[in-house]
TrEMBL record:
Keywords from the UniProt entry: Transferase
Superkingdom of the organism of origin: Bacteria
GO biological process: glycoprotein metabolic process
InterPro entries: LicD/FKTN/FKRP_NTP_transf, LPS_cholinephosphotransferase
Protein name, UniProt field: Phosphorylcholine transferase LicD
UniProt keyword annotation of tRNA processing present: no
Biological classification of the source: Bacteria, Bacillati, Bacillota, Clostridia, Lachnospirales
Species this chain originates from: Hungatella hathewayi
GO MF terms held by the record: transferase activity
Coiled coil feature spans: none
Amino acid sequence: MREINIDELKKIEYDMLVDFAKFCDKNNLIYFLSSGTLLGAVRHHDFIPWDDDIDVMLPRKDYEKFVTSYKNKDYFVDDLLINNSCWGRCGKLKCRNTILESNLKENYKEKVFIDIFPIDGICDNKLIQKIKLSIIQLFINFHMSTITKCKPTKRYADKNAGILNWKTGVRTLLKYFLILTIGNTRPQFWTRIINGWLKKTDFNSARYAGFFAGGYYGTKELMPKKIFDKRIPMKFGKYDFWIPEEYDYYLTNLYGNYMKLPPIEKRQPHHAFKAYWLD
């Protein structure tokens, strides 16, 4: 196997994004660039220079249509909807001729991928919103405990990360406890519970919506549904892709002053893995 360098990795992911976008446009599926990829498009018109992944999002019904209908000789979709052994909470579009080794789990084998996120509606009541999202976050923690290595480290269980100091150790010890207890359950069990809860409110009839299955930004993901009503094209690399017309609201909600670059010491990729071409 030959290791894939960062430039090759970005090209593989970008080519997958292009094919994803063409398929969605051809089949009238609504999609948007999401999270850091959307930030990269708006601020850099490309990848965030120190980032190494691509995220897209679709309303739940379009998401499920994509997952169940996409076909390509070079790429494939992995999601619990079509693969009972899939452990992720959300879908991934994967490159067949690659292998990815992660620090998150021993003997972990994956493919180079882009993340595909479902956008779900949520009820109007503010109190119920908070309760529901808190419960979903608990289920997400349970799910994470089933797929991480049993070591209390900075980022769940990156085997190359250092042990935390005691100032922030309590949170890590709680994660460690979950890994040792609920970690013995199957991740698919929690994925089905999470998605079952999230699908109870229809996206089209909701007044509020967001990508809640990830748990990455907590309640910052909660947006007025109108944010996703209209799209505009935005340059990302060589081509234009769809983003929310009200991208400023979305990005401000997630990142605050998103046009300000972070300190140099924080300009680091978020993922701990190495990728290879298959022989």
